[in-house]
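TICKET: design request
STATUS: open
ATTACHED STRUCTURE:
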């Protein structure tokens, strides 16, 4: 679990540095950086999507996950909670920073593989991921603000849960399964990038259940 805690701490540290930088940035520069981050996030998504080898799994996962997430209205629930924190701390844009950073940090192969290895005693992957997330948090916090710091909470909970069940889950999370999960997660990352560019208003949180559907589908396809 040490790797999980370090990963979360580095997100907070990076977020704090980003907030300090934000104070010295003119608004026009911040807006330009957000656009730049949107393009980078799309690139990260495209790169990760190549991990998948079965497009049908991605199609079915997005469909099933979208139905589940839409019925549960996960986006509404997450944003409602984030808005309450936004009002409490009087920080505009909290919800956007929180949801964007959370999704970028928790989807992808490193989060899954690193957490599995951490649960089995090897924290090296999560240490590496923590450094990457920390640097990313600096940029996100400098443009999206205070909410980025709180993304450390779901990062720790998500990766901690995987680490705790690693002994049971490891045999089922083969390279094939992880590749398909990473593919679907990376598609969601691309949606985040499109939202950051202002091209779409996709409720990405409502599609989050799609990430877990490949675990079942890979047993049959």
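STATUS: resolved
RESOLUTION: sequence designed for all positions
ATTACHED SEQUENCE:
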């Amino acid at each position: 679990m040490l790797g999980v805690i370090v990963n979360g701490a580095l997100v907070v540290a990076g977020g704090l540095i980003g907030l300090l930088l934000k104070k010295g940035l003119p608004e026009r520069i911040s807006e330009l950086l957000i656009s730049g981050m949107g393009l980078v996030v799309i690139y990260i998504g495209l790169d990760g999507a190549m991990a998948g080898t079965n497009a049908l799994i991605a199609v079915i996962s997005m469909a099933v996950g979208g139905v589940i997430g839409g019925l549960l209205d996960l986006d509404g629930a997450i944003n409602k909670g984030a808005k309450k924190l936004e009002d409490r701390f009087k920080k505009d844009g909290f919800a956007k920073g929180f949801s964007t950073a959370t999704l970028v940090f928790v989807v992808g192969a490193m989060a899954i593989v690193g957490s599995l290895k951490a649960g089995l005693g090897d924290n090296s992957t999560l240490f590496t991921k923590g450094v990457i997330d920390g640097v990313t948090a600096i940029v996100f916090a400098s443009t999206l603000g205070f909410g980025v710091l709180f993304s450390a909470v779901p990062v720790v909970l998500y990766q901690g849960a995987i680490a705790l069940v690693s002994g049971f889950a490891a045999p089922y999370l083969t390279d094939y399964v992880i590749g398909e999960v990473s593919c679907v997660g990376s598609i969601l990352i691309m949606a985040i990038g499109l939202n950051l560019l202002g091209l779409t208003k996709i409720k990405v949180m409502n599609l989050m259940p799609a990430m877990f559907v490949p675990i079942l589908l890979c047993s049959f396809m």
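CLOSING REMARK: The first helix runs from residue 2 to 22. The CA atoms of residues 9 and 152 lie 7 Å apart.
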